[in-house]
Specification:
- With 389 residues, the chain is of the alpha+beta class.
- It folds into two domains: 230 residues, FAD/NAD(P)-binding domain (3-Layer(bba) Sandwich), CATH 3.50.50; 123 residues, D-Amino Acid Oxidase, Chain A, domain 2 (2-Layer Sandwich), CATH 3.30.9.10.
- It is built from twelve helices and 20 strands.
- It has an eight-stranded mixed beta sheet with strand order 6-5-14-15-16-13-17-20.
- β18 and β19 form a beta hairpin.
- α1 runs parallel beside α9 and α11 crosses α12.
- Bound molecules: arabino-flavin-adenine dinucleotide and P-hydroxybenzoic acid.
- Pfam families: FAD_binding_3.
- One of its GO terms (biological process) is benzoate catabolic process.
- Keywords: FAD, Flavoprotein, Monooxygenase, Oxidoreductase.
- GO terms for molecular function: 4-hydroxybenzoate 3-monooxygenase activity; FAD binding.
């Protein structure tokens, strides 16, 4: 079997890259380890930057988002009950779209099916070969048989636990990491969201986030110690803790109900450089992880895909490899911008076990600066709604 671009991973990165390349006349094959149902059962991101919205529309996968997505032109920040608003539109003229990653992935699978793209779900034992040659290939098992896929280029879109990053020799990789001493316990409940706009709430009990998916689907989080397990948290315990971390006027109107999904996600900042080795190019979580505080993870995957797609179209249309040679540096420049923003939001809004009085004053001062300074609000709004690609 042969194709032009072999894509490892059928999450948002892999599917969007496949969709954009096929629309540009470039052949792809997507190899996804899990079943389609399993991929679509994941509950993850909820906020799309302006650039992500535009690229999904360009890919022909934005129609349902434009009907069901909810544009947001601001968010709320709270510190021990005192709440204020960041007006994105007034500060930088941009908005975000509230639309779950699960829906984005469904729309991408639908768009791929509509153009007859080649996706192997439940492709196992994927292995990359001759990556640093001009004739790379991939082997994998599917339908009880072994397969070989020859290609020009391999896109590693297989997430943090995938094999692509590990296929780059450790001696050639430089990894940067910060593990945070807490996680996010998240629940989904078929209840009316307590807020029209997201509330990022800092409290001495820990961080909480009130988000949503639609007028009858709430997405809420509380910071929990890394030692906590999801079975330690009954729904009642979650609602009690969540209510205690919200401003009183918000907590008073909280509608609770049974959780339909409950999970704990660890928080880390991670970057692996470079994002390219030979004919292998990494996109999304395969190369970097951000704490979800800045709502950047999914959106960074999209900007990587944008850069790689541009470079591949240039190569196939003109023969020039300049874009491919510049891909890693270009993608990493935006990755580190988002890494800084996500780290700063996480540091400002969470309770750290090692924090003392000085650190607490720094958090209060950061939040006060956002309340008082138009320049500070503009910087936050530009980062939250997404720096230009
Ligand atoms: P993904 O991990 O989504 O997709 C990689 C795909 O590759 C998967 O389908 C996997 O099955 C497949 N794969 C892995 N190994 C393979 C192999 N060897 N062979 C073939 N296929 C293989 N981001 C936010 O912005 N906000 C959030 O609130 C948020 N919450 C998150 C919660 C959790 C628990 C996690 C893990 C991530 C969260 N993220 C969040 C980040 C998340 O949304 C990612 O940024 C996004 O999924 C990145 O997409 P991909 O790069 O496609 O990686
Ligand atoms: C979500 O709705 O899941 C969400 C929103 C904003 C974040 C993180 C998660 O920063």
């Amino acid at each position: 079997m042969r194709t032009q671009v072999a894509i490892i991973g059928g999450g948002p990165s892999g599917l969007l890259l496949s969709q954009l390349l096929n629309r540009a006349g470039i052949a792809t094959v997507v190899l996804e380890r899990r079943s389609r149902d399993y991929v679509l059962s994941r509950i993850r991101a909820g906020i799309l930057e302006t650039g992500t919205v535009d690229l999904l529309r360009e890919a022909g996968a934005g129609a349902r988002m434009d009907v069901e997505g909810i544009p947001h032109d601001g968010c709320l920040l709270a510190d021990n009950g005192e709440m204020f608003r960041i007006d994105f539109d007034a500060a930088c003229g941009r908005k975000v779209m509230v639309y779950g990653q699960t829906e984005v992935t469904q729309d991408l699978y639908d768009a791929q099916d509509a153009i007859g793209a080649t996706i192997f779900n439940e492709a196992t034992d994927v292995a990359l070969h001759d990556v640093d040659s001009d004739a790379p290939h991939v082997t994998f098992r599917h339908g009880g048989a072994d397969h070989r896929l020859d290609c020009d280029v391999i896109a590693g879109c297989d997430g943090f636990h995938g094999i692509s990053r590990q296929s780059i020799p450790a001696a050639l990789r430089q990894e940067f990491e910060r593990i945070y001493p807490f996680g996010w316990l998240g629940i989904l409940s078929r209840t009316p969201p307590v807020t029209d706009e997201l509330i990022y709430a800092r409290s001495d009990r820990g961080f909480a986030l009130a988000s949503l998916r639609n007028p009858m689907l709430s997405r809420y989080y509380v910071q929990v110690p890394l030692t906590d397990r999801v079975e330690d948290w009954s729904d009642e315990a979650f609602w009690t803790e969540f209510r205690a971390r919200l401003p009183a006027e918000v907590a008073a109107r909280l509608v609770t109900g049974p959780s339909i999904e409950k999970s704990i996600a660890p928080l880390r900042s991670f970057v692996s450089e470079p994002m390219r080795w030979g004919r292998l190019f990494l996109c999304g979580d395969a190369a970097h992880i951000v704490p979800p505080t800045g709502a950047k993870g999914l959106n960074l995957a999209v900007s990587d895909v944008h850069y790689l797609c541009e470079a591949l179209i240039q190569r196939y249309r003109t023969g020039s490899e300049a874009g491919l040679d510049g891909y890693s540096a270009r993608a990493l420049a935006r990755v580190w911008q988002a890494m800084r923003f996500s780290w700063s939001m996480t540091t400002m809004m969470h309770s750290f076990p090692e924090h003392g009085g000085f650190d607490r004053r720094m958090q209060q001062t950061e939040l006060a600066l956002l309340q008082r300074s138009e320049a500070a609000r503009r910087l936050m709004a530009e980062n939250y709604t997404g720096m230009p690609f």
